[in-house]
Amino acid sequence: MTAFARRNGVLHAESVSLIDLAARFGTPCWVYSRAALEASLAEFERELAGLDALVCYAVKANSNLAVLDVFARRGAGFDIVSGGELRRALAAGADPRRIVFSGVGKTAAEMELALAADILCFNVESAPELDRLSAVAGRLGKTAPISLRVNPDVDAKTHPYISTGLKENKFGVAYEEALALYRHAASLPNLTISGIDCHIGSQLLDPAPFAAALDKILTLVDQLAANGIVLHHIDLGGGLGIRYRDEDAPTVQAYLQPMLQKLRDRHLQVLLEPGRRLVGNAGLLLTRVEYLKPGEVKNFAIVDAAMNDLARPALYGSWHDIVPVVAPQGATRPWEIVGPVCESGDFLGHGRDLALATGDLLAIMSAGAYGMAMSSNYNSRPRAAEVMVDGADVHLVRRRETAEELYALEQRLP
């Protein structure tokens, strides 16, 4: 089914009118489709059927417990990058033996938490991290399963802020240093080498860099085997992009099959870490027009959502389709869709041709990934409610914050 479609001219989330959701929960409001979440995961499951493979959802894309719960119920794993994300995944019912811990700055306390939970693997990103993890594991009387995140120095052809596989990026260990680091890991008493990890970036639309990165990683796998280091799994990371505007996003099949062909007869478990691809088009941000401010140079539509709710346009210059909830009538004109935050960079869309009136509801599409997860309380704005639609059923999965909650942890001077 289509997650978001018009019925009698009104945009719906599955079987529920967005007008009804706005009336019930207010705006701005995040709206997610359970059917879309499950359909996105099923696309990966179909391609991986019959293989020793595990899809580990990248929690950073959208960490709402209900979203994690949907994936956990279907047996998915999770890719985490903090102790907080680990606690979230466990609270949502995740199997710790299906959790991989990525990230460049793991603290000793986070390592202890993950070791106590008995997670599947630590994706280690530096030599000092290897030493720290071995020491922490030894202090706890445990052995930490590890893979090295190897930087293949492949251009992912994406926005520089979300490219992670080049030499100048902070992520991973240099390809040329990986063999020596694996030998070092093998010498440490409280580590066990489990696999190898590679992640080259986010919102990737060309499968070619994936294949180029895998070729380099498999060469390293063979070198490791020649040195007596045999791996159990290969983690191909995530980053597969979605269609926001007019991008030609590859299908999961087009992305996976060339890589799976290369892995045939390798006897390695395959791990994947998709985030955006699973949740991006399963969510939208519902907002209302507060004021229309036509001008000689630009026309401004001031809505009640802002850059603190959805940071991607201001941060990356990203495009999100913005559509009226009720089918528009009348003449259109170009509008700057902006929020009430006191920054000139507070915009959600430039030059959108829309027929607008004060009070209109707008849906900011493809906002399920890096939306609420990157939101803030800038300008002391309470974060919006989150709603999950499941057919005709509606679940409030995070209530709207109150202003009082924003300063509940603070106190005046005596």
Features:
about 425 residues, alpha/beta, Lyase, Ornithine Decarboxylase, Chain A, domain 1, TIM Barrel, 2 domains, 9-stranded mixed sheet, 8-stranded parallel β-barrel, 12 helices, 21 strands, about 30% helix, globular, pyridoxal phosphate binding
Description:
The chain is an alpha/beta fold and 414 residues long. The chain has 2 domains: 4-32 and 280-406, Lyase, Ornithine Decarboxylase, Chain A, domain 1; 34-276, Alanine racemase (TIM Barrel, Alpha-Beta Barrel), CATH 3.20.20. 30% of the residues lie in helices and 25% in strands. It contains 12 helices and 21 strands. It has helices spanning 18-25, 34-48, 65-73, 83-91, 108-117, 127-140, 175-187, 207-226, 252-263, 276-279, 312-316, 403-406; strands spanning 4-7, 10-13, 16-17, 29-33, 53-58, 77-80, 99-101, 121-124, 144-151, 173-174, 191-197, 233-235, 269-272, 283-293, 300-303, 322-324, 333-338, 347-354, 361-364, 385-390, 393-398. The strands form 3 sheets. Strands 4, 14, 15, 16, 17, 18, 19, 20 and 21 form a 9-stranded mixed β-sheet that branches. An 8-stranded parallel β-barrel has the order 5-6-7-8-9-11-12-13, surrounded by 5 helices. Strand 6 (77-80), helix 4 and strand 7 (99-101) form a beta-alpha-beta unit. Helix 8 (207-226) runs parallel beside helix 9. It starts with a strand and ends in an 8-residue tail after the last helix. The relative contact order is 0.16. The active site is at 342 (proton donor). Belongs to the Orn/Lys/Arg decarboxylase class-II family. LysA subfamily.
